[in-house]
Specification:
This protein is mostly helical and about 100 residues long. The chain has one domain. It is built from six helices and no strands. The longest helix has 20 residues. It is globular.
Protein backbone atom coordinates (compact mmCIF):
# COMPACT_ATOMS: atom_id res chain seq x y z
CA UNK A 1 0.00 0.00 0.00
CA UNK A 2 1.32 3.44 -0.93
CA UNK A 3 1.54 6.06 1.77
CA UNK A 4 0.92 9.71 0.99
CA UNK A 5 3.83 12.06 1.65
CA UNK A 6 3.76 13.90 4.97
CA UNK A 7 2.86 17.59 4.85
CA UNK A 8 4.82 19.69 7.33
CA UNK A 9 3.68 23.29 7.81
CA UNK A 10 5.48 26.23 9.34
CA UNK A 11 3.53 28.35 11.82
CA UNK A 12 3.13 31.04 9.16
CA UNK A 13 1.83 28.59 6.55
CA UNK A 14 -0.60 27.12 9.07
CA UNK A 15 -1.95 30.57 9.95
CA UNK A 16 -2.44 31.47 6.28
CA UNK A 17 -4.17 28.17 5.52
CA UNK A 18 -6.41 28.35 8.59
CA UNK A 19 -7.45 31.88 7.65
CA UNK A 20 -8.14 30.75 4.09
CA UNK A 21 -10.06 27.72 5.32
CA UNK A 22 -12.40 29.97 7.31
CA UNK A 23 -12.64 32.77 4.75
CA UNK A 24 -16.12 33.73 3.66
CA UNK A 25 -15.07 35.85 0.70
CA UNK A 26 -12.58 33.41 -0.79
CA UNK A 27 -13.53 31.09 -3.63
CA UNK A 28 -14.96 27.73 -2.62
CA UNK A 29 -12.09 25.99 -4.39
CA UNK A 30 -9.51 27.97 -2.44
CA UNK A 31 -11.20 27.18 0.88
CA UNK A 32 -11.46 23.51 -0.03
CA UNK A 33 -7.78 23.31 -0.99
CA UNK A 34 -6.72 24.95 2.26
CA UNK A 35 -8.80 22.49 4.26
CA UNK A 36 -7.33 19.55 2.34
CA UNK A 37 -3.77 20.69 3.10
CA UNK A 38 -4.58 21.32 6.77
CA UNK A 39 -6.04 17.84 7.22
CA UNK A 40 -3.06 16.33 5.39
CA UNK A 41 -0.74 18.20 7.76
CA UNK A 42 -2.72 16.79 10.69
CA UNK A 43 -1.73 13.30 9.52
CA UNK A 44 -4.96 12.23 7.81
CA UNK A 45 -4.74 9.87 4.86
CA UNK A 46 -6.18 10.80 1.46
CA UNK A 47 -9.22 8.52 1.80
CA UNK A 48 -10.07 9.91 5.22
CA UNK A 49 -9.80 13.50 3.96
CA UNK A 50 -11.93 12.67 0.91
CA UNK A 51 -14.65 11.08 3.04
CA UNK A 52 -14.67 13.97 5.53
CA UNK A 53 -14.83 16.66 2.83
CA UNK A 54 -16.99 14.72 0.38
CA UNK A 55 -14.53 14.97 -2.50
CA UNK A 56 -12.78 12.27 -4.49
CA UNK A 57 -9.57 10.70 -3.17
CA UNK A 58 -7.99 11.66 -6.50
CA UNK A 59 -8.59 15.34 -5.79
CA UNK A 60 -6.92 15.04 -2.40
CA UNK A 61 -4.04 13.06 -3.91
CA UNK A 62 -3.60 15.81 -6.51
CA UNK A 63 -3.41 18.72 -4.04
CA UNK A 64 -1.05 17.21 -1.50
CA UNK A 65 1.96 17.08 -3.88
CA UNK A 66 1.03 20.41 -5.48
CA UNK A 67 1.31 22.07 -2.12
CA UNK A 68 4.53 20.23 -1.28
CA UNK A 69 6.25 21.25 -4.52
CA UNK A 70 5.09 24.84 -4.72
CA UNK A 71 3.54 25.90 -1.44
CA UNK A 72 0.30 27.80 -1.11
CA UNK A 73 0.90 30.79 -3.41
CA UNK A 74 1.78 28.57 -6.34
CA UNK A 75 -1.14 26.23 -5.66
CA UNK A 76 -3.69 29.02 -5.61
CA UNK A 77 -2.44 30.86 -8.69
CA UNK A 78 -1.58 28.00 -11.00
CA UNK A 79 -2.45 28.49 -14.64
CA UNK A 80 -4.31 25.55 -16.10
CA UNK A 81 -5.75 24.46 -19.40
CA UNK A 82 -5.27 25.45 -23.03
CA UNK A 83 -5.85 29.17 -22.41
CA UNK A 84 -2.95 29.26 -19.95
CA UNK A 85 -0.70 27.49 -22.43
CA UNK A 86 -1.71 29.88 -25.21
CA UNK A 87 -0.95 32.90 -22.99
CA UNK A 88 2.50 31.60 -22.24
CA UNK A 89 3.29 31.20 -25.97
CA UNK A 90 2.21 34.69 -27.09
CA UNK A 91 4.91 36.72 -28.76
CA UNK A 92 6.12 39.94 -27.21
CA UNK A 93 4.50 43.30 -28.03
CA UNK A 94 7.07 44.11 -30.70
CA UNK A 95 5.84 41.21 -32.82
CA UNK A 96 2.31 42.64 -32.88
CA UNK A 97 3.20 46.19 -33.92
CA UNK A 98 2.38 47.35 -37.43
Amino acid sequence: MRVAPLVALSDEQREVLEARGRARRASARSVERAQIVLLAAAGWQNREIAAQMRVTPEKVARWRPRFLTGGWPRSSTMRRGPAARARSRRPTCAAWST
